[in-house]
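Lest this sound abstract, we think one record worth quoting, the chain in one-letter code, the fold tokenised, each line plainly labelled:

>
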Amino acid sequence: MGDLYALDFDGVLCDSCGESSLSAVKAAKVRWPGLFDGVDSVMEDWIVDQMHTVRPVVETGYENLLLVRLLVEMRVPFIRKSSVAEGLTVEGILENWSKLKPVIMEEWNENRDALIDLFGKVRDEWMDNDLATWIGANRFYPGVPDALKFASSTVYIVTTKQSRFADALLRELAGVTIPPERIYGLGTGPKVKILKQLQLRPEHQGMKLHFVEDRLATLKNVIKEPELDGWNLYLGDWGYNTQKEREEAASIPRIQLLQLSDFSKKLK
């Protein structure tokens, strides 16, 4: 019957950290203009650099905006509005993001949906005004475009990115067209719900099910659902995860640690 692969996008297929960090800085300037008056190009470079380190904590794109502001508050004491910024380190963000996020959302009086809309709008404007540099700020991991083009497996994209951005990158950068009904983006529901929908479809009965993700927390959510016991789970070790998370994944029997070269072979 063949294989079905449900693939995360950012951190599995595409390294979008450069683009999402630059978009988040642009969006942060729109959202908090007063705070970002004093942010010069040197500071911006520092932010983008730090964002690569903290990227593993991001589940949904809008969190990039929160991280950008938090990094600025860590560096510039007199603009601080959050109780958590003083003495905070990048390691502290990696360890405690799930606790920090609700605190800063409340202290900055932010709304999740409004930030999602703003982040999407800033990206849309960048794409409309200069598609080439927007595309160029992303890169597919080596071998992935060919693996997708020549995949003999049935492939679905299951991502917290907005579908239109995943679709644009697949077409423009990887030269791959995946039918829109096979791309589940932000707003289609939690990944566990989508995996349940996929496995119930009549045309998928009897297929071997595989889910490739770079967030350990997401894989642990799948393990909690007995209905999803039929899925083979993989943590991509080239994606946005930490050494500590990879070690933990290696100790969980359900999860297979996957290397990029093996991933490309599997799809073919």
